[in-house]
Amino acid sequence: MLPPETELWNRVEQTAREVFGTYGFGEIRPPIFEPTELFARAVGGETDIVSKEMYSFEDHGFIELEQWRAGLITRSVGAGLPSEFEKYEKSVLAYLDILSARMSAGEVPKTPENEKALVAVRNCLKEMNQAGASFLRTQTGAGEFAFENLLKGVKQALLSFRFGDVLSLRPEATAGICRAYIEHNMQQWPAPVKLYCFGPMFRRERPQKGRYRQFYQIDAEVLGGSDAPGIDAEVIEMVMTFFAKLELPGVLLEINSIGHSGAGTHGKAVCRRAYVEALRAALEKVKDKLGADSQRRIETNPLRVLDSKLESEQGIIAGLPKIGDYLCEECKTHYAEVKRQLDLRGVKYVENWRLVRGLDYYMRTTFEITARGLGSQNAVCGGGRYDGLVELLGGPPTKGIGFAIGEDRLILSLQEARKEVASGEWRLAIETKNPPSKTEGGAPGGGIGRDVYIAWMGEKAQVAAIAAARRLREAGLRVELPPVAQKFGKALGQADKLGARFALILGEDEVASGQWTVKTLADGAQEKVGEADVVEWLQKKKV
Ligand code: HAM
User: How open is the CA angle 436-457-22, to the nearest 5 degrees?
Assistant: First the structure.
């Protein structure tokens, strides 16, 4: 990436910082590589990303030990030649001694797997002694076969020994952020914890326009707190606001709910499990008409068949069972409420029942956003809810939702838009007229600070609260809008915990009279401010 293009990248990132900041997000910078196991667990071992696209390596500097092992593994040893076996055995035992010493010294990982590998090698060697002797006595093929099998056992066990930790370049950011959430006890921060990060991700995919092996994401996650549908809607509203600010062309938001994956009672599958069963059965019936990839997926992951772009399969897929007909009552209600909350915020969407996403951690809400000028790789953003992921990684039960924007594609689409502008000097749509909030420092108990907490009470006030949040954010203020109505006392407590400086109180009286109550949390002073003057009032007070 070269100048002047890097200028565009910087301005896109600056705009993200500004917009996300007004929603109360703070930046996290997770490491570029993490233990492979983390991604395998979070994203899923059967997914394309983990099973074939990760750049993984063993983190160690023991080249000579590796070469020695390679020698032991490629050597052939005849069952009928005792002297040959003796030499081999000696050499392997000497190697094991060195590995044990390095393990004791803490230079190579002292893991149960490594210890098991050493024991397995020794056991195989012992049995080889016997098998070899029996072969010499009887000269039967069976004896030779046993010997060869044991030799294979030695080699496999040697190969399974790890000289260092197995690491991977991150293929995505969510897993690492959840790992950090656990490691840094962020469940003790005031909830919800809202984090974003920028940076390179790595996937060994077939490169083409808009698809690279090193690509960049702008990632945002909301962790902890409730799973109220208002949170789903707000996260989506935030990314749509960001795209609107950039004037990204041809933005289309698609949403779906993929239910939850829990088991039902009395062995009867419910929700997503029931759907997967029905889908698999339906796919079995049309198996002959499907391509090889989809045929394989009937067994491994039938949901992925819905992703197929194969022309010949489209007609068949259109006739498959739809997940919406299988959602349990809770998931159905949640989805309906997400849609209502999007409507309240004026966010336009289309529903796409085939949107299942290629990572295992999702449940309920999933969404994708496409933009113009990108050809076949036109998804600029993908995301969804992932309650349970933090717990799966060893943390406490935690709600989660987030998204990642493909920054390379975002930039490509903006550049295409630039070409569309026929004349005149093209100027970036991004304006920095709203400087980022001057509030620095976090909440008192750790976490990210806020300028304004909107305490709204009564369903009628929600519409006014959503509109107020938008106005304040447009003015660059960091705003927390609780997703559900709260009692007055609880709201003020939350505002305090988050380190908010002002609480905007919106009850039915305030909405009816247009006179809003603003409370300065430091001294408890309370004032009535006219609806039209609130932004200016807060901006003046904040400095
Ligand atoms: P994802 O759909 O795998 O989701 O990736 C998100 C976005 O990254 C895609 O929509 C695309 O724009 C971009 N992207 C993916 N692969 C490539 C590539 N090889 N080259 C260029 N761009 C690419 C995730 O990664 C999830 N972690 C999103 C998320 C966050 N869900 C919850 N929180």
Answer: 10
Q: Where does 5-143 show beta strands of DSSP type E?
A: 26-27, 33-35, 56-59
Which helix (H) or strand (E) element contains residue 255? strand 252-257
What is residue 46's predicted lDDT score, i.e. its pLDDT? 87
Which amino acid belongs to residue 108?
V
For residue 217, how far is its CA from the centre of ligand 1 (angstroms)? 7
The SS3 call for residue 360 is coil
Pocket test for ligand 1, best of 25, 172, 386, 405 (most atoms within 8 A of CB): 172
Residues with CB under 6 A from ligand 1: 172-174, 203, 205, 210-212, 215, 217, 219, 221, 359, 379-384, 386, 402-404, 406, 408-409
Estimate the crossing angle of helix 63-74 against helix 82-104, to 10 degrees. 150
pLDDT score recorded for residue 541: 85
Q: 504: which strand partners?
A: 454, 518
Terminal-residue alpha carbon distance, the chain: 38
Give 193-234 pLDDT, tens digit per residue.
Answer: 999 999 999 999 999 999 999 999 999 999 999 999 999 999
Phi, psi at 235, each rounded to 5°: -60, -45
Q: Mean pLDDT, to the nearest integer, of 379-401? A: 97
Q: pTM of the prediction?
A: 0.89
Mutate to test the pocket of ligand 1, among 359, 386, 401 (most ligand atoms within 8 A of CB): 359
Burial 33-56 (b: 16+ CB within 10 A, else e): bbbbebbbbbbbeebbbbeebbbe
